[in-house]
Amino acid sequence: MTIPSEFRAFQAVTDGDAIQRGVVTMAAGELPEGVAVEVHYSSVNYKDALASIPTGKVARISPIVPGGDLAGVLLEDAGDLAAGTEVIVHGYDLGVAQHGGFAEYARVPADWIVPLPAGLTLREAMVFGTAGFTAALSVLALQEHGVTAGSGPVLVTGATGGVGSTAVAMLAKLGYEVVASTGKPSEAGWLQALGAASVIDRAELAEESKRPLESTVWAGAVDCVGGVTLANVLKRIRYGGSVAASGLTGGAGLPTTVMPFILRGVNLLGIDSVMTPIARRREVWARMAADLKPDGLAEIGHDIGLDELDAALTEIFAGGAKGRSIVRPNAG
User: Fold this and answer.
1) Quick one: 60 exposed, middle or buried, by C-beta within 10 A (0-12, 13-18, 19+)?
2) Cα separation, 79 vs 62, whole angstroms
3) What is the pTM of this model?
């Protein structure tokens, strides 16, 4: 099977300070060189929203098919993988410098491809997506730096977002006492259903403080927010604890001091999911299909079609996103 001459895709076209985005009919010849994939699912990330606005400074081509994640079926052989293999592709330049997963078909470099591990469906892989992969990297980083289920409570900020909600579920599955921080008190029940032992208001961490340290509370944290929130989290981490940081929705600055690091031995662990080497990528996905696969995985995702993408991308900036929007390009 080959890519048809025309298919449906969601495109964003930048024109100066304006942008047009919506579903279009795309020609196969507009795709880049690479291995052909029939896309069954994609998912919506904060980065995809940035790629679809003129001020996002993420997309490097226009028009662009956003979508930094995709899961589907190979239409041709790719290295050690045969045509017909179910695969996952995410990160690298997908959806920013070359057309991504918000289309019925894609072409990608062979060395970006992860075979779908046993224990996951294609849809479950996109419930995870880049957000779930980032959450997995964060949880593994905490474990590798000695934060165990017996170390004490672990905080997750931005807990209703894609990375945060998945991290809550993963940590709970592993037996951690999870404290979820959110600005959406109405979602406390949902977070507890995912496994959070308690839920706190994000306002507790949102005010900048001049004190270099606070009373210790958490053994570790998964921070999806950055900015003042991350600074306040660092001040409250127990001696020798760690914070895995991957987000900047609260700002790229970090108004803190060296005190948490040199007086309490706190570790700040930077999490990058975009350029993770392919061998590590495949290894982490295998863990995500096994011990890191939360019991409530299906509850984190809800399905949408290409026609609903514009609203989903807008919702991210409005702060209304909950869990994961799973894109079915061939729906509707």
Assistant:
1) exposed
2) 30
3) 0.92
